[in-house]
Amino acid sequence: MKVVDIIARAKHPLFTFEILPPLKGHTLDGIFSTVEKLREYEPAYINVTNHQQEVVYMDRPDGFVERRTVRKRPGTVALSAALQYRFDIPVVPHLICGGMNAEELENTLVELNFLGLDNVFALRGDPPKGERRFVACRGGWEHSDALVRQVKALNRGSYLDPDLKDPVSTDFCIGVAGYPEKHAEAPNFSIDIANLKKKIESGADYIVTQMFFINDHYYRFVQACREAGISVPIVPGIKPFSRLSDLELIPQTFHIDLPDALVDAVLHASSPAEIRDIGVWWCTEQSKDLLAHGVPGIHYYTLGKAESVAKVVRAAF
Questions:
Q1: 3-243+282-316 classified as CATH 3.20.20.220
Q2: pLDDT tens-digit profile of 204-246?
Q3: Kindly report the CA angle at 241 between 240 and 247, in degrees rounded to 5?
Q4: Which of 52, 162, 300, 304 is most buried per CB count within 10 Å?
Q5: Measured between alpha carbons, how far is 288 from 290 in angstroms, rounded to an integer?
Q6: How many CA atoms lie within 13 A of 147 on its CB side?
Q7: Residue 266 CB: number of other CB atoms within 10 A?
């Protein structure tokens, strides 16, 4: 079932979550265990992330360094199909512009269509690790609005090859990302909203936000979207704080603010377990407040770990 239909038919706010494919060389056992722990809370759908290749430098026996590209978390399409058919829960695989040209993206969409997956989440993707800016590969897309248009073209039966005979139309529902505290590369909040509107005008059906820890940022973001004429559902995405190093890593990685009360509590925690408890407490209070404000649902970033999210959902929903 399409995400927009799930949202439209829901009689109560939805619980959804996101997982990462396992590292290359590992099995799906950990992923299946995470989903098993969370399925009792009746997730409406599950997102599966996508990761482009990274540049690594390997020492050679002759003393020189060799530059290689590796993809550490392949398998988004296969994992998405495995989850949907094992657990009978709709799955939303991520599609990213990074590392793929238009032909490769089209082929991926064809595979998803063959597998019966009718939801995708369209993202530009981050620059490769060690690179300062995003650069599309030859024949690829610089921005996710172009990827959205490609998916919509397939939904009309328009493929890259104009000579195909009687091509079938796909029927994908398309989600895109929104940034309550603006995308790190946008010069200001207003331009970031304008960029988001381009994605909606290109054919995106709904928005899921980047994580945030201050709900007022989300409420301001939704108001700005509505004032700009963006009327699609906007699902808040949040994450339980989990470790001391998050104080530095989260702001650096996602360019978001952490609230004083959360930072102070973490700094005064006496153990890693207490920090996790603080993270659950804060995320639970966030969730209760969001639900009281009538959000369509809450999307949780699990990073493959179910325990903290399960505690939050049990307490908030």
A1: yes
A2: 999 999 999 999 999 999 999 999 999 999 999 999 999 999 9
A3: 155
A4: 300
A5: 6
A6: 29
A7: 19
